[in-house]
Amino acid sequence: MLLLLAHAALAAAPQVNVNITLPAQAQQAGFDETELEQALATAIGDQLHTVDLEAYMDQMANANVLSAKGLGVDYASDMQRFEVGGGFGTAVNGAGFALTSGGGLPETGFALQVGVMAGLNLGIASPKESALRRFRLYVNGMSAATQRDPFTATFLNYGGHLQIQVVKGGDKTSGLRWGGLDLTSGYEFSSYVLELHEGIPVVTDDLEWDATGNMILRADAQSIPVELSTNLHVFVVTAFLGAAGDYNLSGQSKASIGIGGPISLSYDGNQENVGAADATVSQEGAANTFTPRVFVGAQADIFMVKVYGQLNVTLDHSVGGHVGLRVAI
Questions:
Q1: By Cβ atoms counted within 10 A, which residue in 81, 177, 184, 232 is the most buried?
Q2: pLDDT at 141 over 60
Q3: CA nearest 77: which of 298, 225, 227, 312?
Q4: Which of 126, 76, 97 is nearest to 306 (CA)?
Q5: Which has the higher per-residue pLDDT, 13 or 218?
Q6: Domain extents in the chain
Q7: What pLDDT, on a 0 to 100 scale, did the predictor assign at position 29?
Q8: How many Cβ atoms are within 10 Å of 192's Cβ, its own excluded?
Q9: For residues 73 and 77, what is the distance between their CA atoms, to the nearest angstrom?
């Protein structure tokens, strides 16, 4: 028997086909074919997020936009010559402050980024009183892959930023120093891809679907942030905070799923192949064009070494955080 679930009113609606032919002995054991088909179709929809895949892909796009925010800029070190460093972090959309998602397919929008950065004070060869000392240039980027069984996760980010100290900070007095007011803007690109590289089982109380094939979820974004930030240095700790608006030149996501495999039924201690199922999906999502954001963080200053953590929160229910280490002179 063929059960076709087509989610209404979407031109590229996800489709899950479940075809079960129960053995006579299983029917005699009291299994209802239609109920098993519906249970498996529901489990597939829940695990692959095909019930509302368009909303899920929107979440992936918004999480990816936020994932690289702050990785390529320093808001706390008052760099006077140059700086190098790196960090890693995640962003989620629709999951509150749960910045981890375990293995497998994330429950809500999720993206991971790792980056390295370098900074240069444009007044490095100028006197301390020169206005050029207020201009700092940053570049960042990195590409790598990691495992989120049964997926391969690939991330890419790169960008450049110019930071201007619009209000000069104070001098250190008894270990205290206000860092002034900084304006930062630039260009950021981020990409996060999840690709199925082995089977993905879907299990109900009685049925198991061993699906294989291709499953790719991809999110790409180009963004221009405009950030206003300040910081306060207290002995060996610097706290910083800021407000920002992110204009997203582009922020898309796309799911492409074509998987299928046999269905097995467990009963009376036995397991038998009773049919097959397949899922075919092509769905796109989009990030918000403009995103207001606030960020806060803290940094431990160990001479030239800076160990920091930062939290980003947006008005579109995205939350991101990253930690890292920098050396600033």
A1: 184
A2: yes
A3: 298
A4: 76
A5: 218
A6: 2-328
A7: 61
A8: 28
A9: 10
pLDDT tens readout for residues 177-215: 999 999 999 999 999 999 987 788 888 877 888 888 888
Structure tokens at 241: 């905070």
pTM of model > 0.70:
yes
Q: Distances in Å between the alpha carbon of 221 and those of 2, 94, 111, 189, 293?
A: 40, 18, 12, 6, 16
Residue with tokens 């061993």: 210
Least Cα distance to 217 among 104, 318, 301, 135 occurs for 104
